[in-house]
């Protein structure tokens, strides 16, 4: 296993930064349903992604970077709280069925987001993009972003929306708690605009900017000029995906340029990842060489583009090969901001900075778990057990990243060892609080927007 090498200058700079007491700015950028093979730094040839690639090349690429789930909502619950989402009932998407009347249809109030933890540390906070953690079913303001630690919010509560809803006819675009009359810009551009404005207005104090774009999640809507620019790309579904990711990358470029222009780049950590893998038949994305797709626990559903940069603190062109996962961002960000993690928070993520500076040469995680209903996966070191449907499969990811060689029959004892680990972990989870299936509990009638 290739490990990070210790970089003395990084350690020295980190000590200088800490001694000066300057809190870093944090920008967390999330793509939606982006395929593993849809970025240039993973070898993509038909989508220009120079700005995403610049984050990867100017910092660290997590070659085994994972999302906490194979779908949108549960991933976000884990990422923003630092905890396995199964511990607090957010195993499924937001839906109209609820296990019992006292439960929120969304992120429980007891679970504090990273934004809620950063505000007492002096951070300005903002979110522009897709929430997907509750509020839309009952119009419950208590679980909307503006009640969960974000000073500013512009975006959608739901899992998807139109990209060109000039008059907000879907009634999904919001600012704060309120629906807006409309949005003249292509939605990806609007999120970029809001992010640029926030950075300029808060350049003189520490800020946390959460930028979860909706792109390239369906519906497949591309700007007309990009339809023309990429007219040589076929089939149409791929051309639409290319245009949507190109817009995503352009707006990430706007954010990075603004950080440079206002002179705060050396004190700003920028993180980029996708919330899950792509779904080729739905949005034209590609996950090769990985097997599987969104909704599945094969690598293609959960192994995602994941990188971060911090000039002067993280060495350029670094690759970190041990597994990391989205929920690691909570403790990483909080520690950098000068916060402390209390034992009773039961945080499952790991602060990544000691591993990136070489202070800790071990693995952030020996074992990682995924679960949705009866489907699950366990990764322990380089071994991965997958139960997708009725089949139980075992893979050695160090030798078989594409999961093409099932070794379950060859290593039945290892299958049992991993099953034991999974059941011990799962015994600490609670039943899903909400979802789309009637088996969960009572059906809730939606409150009109």
Q: Summary?
A:
The protein has helices at 8-20, 50-57, 72-81, 114-118, 187-201, 224-229, 236-261, 280-283, 299-302, 329-336, 353-356, 412-426; strands at residues 25-31, 60-62, 65-66, 97-98, 124-130, 152-156, 174-175, 178-179, 207-212, 268-274, 306-309, 318-320, 324-325, 367-372, 375-380, 383-388, 391-396, 434-435, 442-443. The chain is α/β, with parallel strands linked by helices. The chain folds into two domains: 8-366, Alkaline Phosphatase, subunit A; 368-443, Arylsulfatase, C-terminal domain, CATH 3.30.1120.10.
What is this structure's SSE topology?
Blueprint: H1 8-20, E1 25-31, H2 50-57, E2 60-62, E3 65-66, H3 72-81, E4 97-98, H4 114-118, E5 124-130, E6 152-156, E7 174-175, E8 178-179, H5 187-201, E9 207-212, H6 224-229, H7 236-261, E10 268-274, H8 280-283, H9 299-302, E11 306-309, E12 318-320, E13 324-325, H10 329-336, H11 353-356, E14 367-372, E15 375-380, E16 383-388, E17 391-396, H12 412-426, E18 434-435, E19 442-443
Parallel strand pairs: 1-9, 1-10, 2-12, 3-13, 5-6, 5-9
Antiparallel strand pairs: 2-11, 4-18, 4-19, 6-7, 7-8, 10-11, 14-15, 15-16, 16-17
